TrEMBL record:
NCBIfam families: mazG, PRK09562.1
Transmembrane segments: none
Source organism of this protein record: Antarctobacter heliothermus
Record's protein name: Nucleoside triphosphate pyrophosphohydrolase
Gene: mazG
Family in the record: Belongs to the nucleoside triphosphate pyrophosphohydrolase family.
Taxonomic superkingdom: Bacteria
Entry's EC annotation: 3.6.1.8
Keyword Isomerase tagged: no
Amino acid sequence: MSDDLIHNPTGGMPRLREIMRRLRDQNSGCPWDLEQTFATIAPYTIEEAYEVADAIERKEWDELKGELGDLLFQSVFHAQMAEEAGLFTFDEVADGMSDKMVARHPHVFGDESRDKSPEQQTRDWETIKAAERASKKETGVLDGVALGLPALLRAVKLQKRAARVGFDWPTTDEVMDKLREEMDELREAEDDDHRFEEFGDLLFVMANLGRHMGIDPEAALRAANGKFTRRFKSIEAALAKDGRRPEDSNLEEMDRLWDAAKAVEKAAKKSDI
């Protein structure tokens, strides 16, 4: 078999698909790639999606190109395994997505008017998706919310679905009241299993509070993670000036250095206003 396509730097999608096919070739493929399954590859797929989001958040556009390639490769990998199992082909994946996009955008590809707000288009999109779920016999309000989603994201999606049929608190005040109730229940939990349950309830209400306040809880937590990382690195940098590491310090000193890093960040924000 000729390797011309494999080594063609402008081979595009056909080249990538051929590389994947060769990696999974039973006689000459890569032993690691050959032993993979949908289940073993799925965690990498999720990881690559987050790395795409990370590059976008950091505005690292050169990195984004590479991360999108990594994510695309995950789709090619899954499709190759599906084709080997006689389930579906990559072309069927692409055609299915194309059909879905055409069906969900009748105001672009059909005879509906484009003269409507983004909010109305969002409502129309959800109406179309509901019809699609019904055609799959997903008749329950919460049917079709993927189990594999990150837990906070899935919580918000479940809550949005329930809210569409009126199962929702009318204002943020009621959510705040529920939050205090769940915190009290967590304090009063008497064993590990009960604490586990109440902690989950507390997180679920926090996701609901974010939804009511128009805050994406996943994005907010990522921002908090980033802030923690920046400030802890400031602690490390301050200690390094004395030739020390965090384990050479104590909580009191590190807390003081944390407050100093926090003050610097606040001052920088004020100067940007």
